[in-house]
Amino acid sequence: MELIRADSRGAFTNDWLDSRHSFSFSDYYDAERMHFSSLRVINEDWVAAKGGFPMHGHRDMEIVTYVMAGALSHKDSLGNGSTIRPGDVQRMSAGRGILHSEFNHSETEAVHLLQIWLLPKFTGIQPGYAQEHFPLEQRRGKLQLLVSADGHDGSLQMNTDANLYASILAAGEQVTYLRPENRAVYVHVARGSLQVNGTALQAGDALQIREETELLFGMADSAEFLVFDLP
Fold first, then answer.
1. Cβ neighbours of residue 26 under 8 Å, at least 6 residues apart?
2. Is the alpha carbon torsion for 156, 26, 187, 191 positive or negative?
3. For residue 137, which phi and psi values (nearest 5 degrees)?
4. CA distance linking residue 116 with residue 22, whole number of Å
5. Alpha carbon of 17 to those of 41, 89, 111, 115: distances in Å?
6. Residue 67, SS3?
7. 116-144: average pLDDT
8. What is the pLDDT of residue 37?
């Protein structure tokens, strides 16, 4: 297991955005942190009240938005408009090109989210969008599948060979994950703290895993974390 500490991430701050970059992104560049398998971006963003990303474009990328606090408004060139709140997961397939904006309309409350990009299996496809609410109670004490390559078990379908799980563990709870053969696993702690096979992680920390077969998540302190199953 390779441990990536939160304080080693890139950072960007302006008057409405505070962002931490787990992989090379924008002005932050690290040749050793370009991607992990098909996982290309995990940006932890805090969007201030009345702030947001103006309309901008993407292509040939699978983009997953995971909101932990607040409400983020989305609009795109396909005509979609929605608000993403905790428990909601949004998947956007940029395909051959899509424009979108994200804005925090609150007068007082910041939005705390993870913006996740994965490299697509097929390029040049028709852009697509989907959003689903996954009640937080359904991931307490267990791993809940949110997004997958084939949309099984009620997950959102995306154009890449990956599965994304989320879990919330309280003190005394634990959950086990068996790494499929010939697969890689990336663990990102969204908040709180926990141990993975005895390795202690805090919010923003991550693990890159290629060898361990069984992963035991436990010793949690109100931990919320994501698990990526990758080729």
1. 12
2. negative
3. -60, -25
4. 10
5. 17, 21, 10, 13
6. strand
7. 97
8. 98
Is residue 165 very low, low, confident or very high in pLDDT (cuts 50, 70, 90)? very high
CA 114, 115, 121, 122 torsion: positive or negative? positive
Rounded to the nearest integer, the mean pLDDT of the chain is: 97
Positive/negative CA dihedral, 125, 126, 127, 133? negative
**Tokens 């991607």 sit at which residue?**
35
Confidence grade of residue 95 (pLDDT, cut at 50, 70, 90): very high
Q: What is the pLDDT of residues 179-220, one digit of tens each?
A: 999 999 999 999 999 999 999 999 999 999 999 999 999 999
Burial class (CB in 10 A: 0-12, 13-18, 19+), 152: exposed
| Residue whose structure tokens are 């004490």 | 141
Return all residues near 188 (Cβ < 8 A) that are at least 6 apart.
22, 42, 114, 205, 206, 225, 226, 228
H helix intervals, 43-176: none
Helix (H, G, I), strand (E, B) or coil at 139: helix
Q: Are 170 and 222 in contact (CB under 8 A)?
A: yes
Rounded distance between C-alpha atoms, residue 161 and residue 136, angstroms: 25
Q: For residue 202, what are the CA distances in angstroms to 190, 193, 194?
A: 9, 4, 7
Q: Is 0.90 surpassed by the pTM of this model?
A: yes
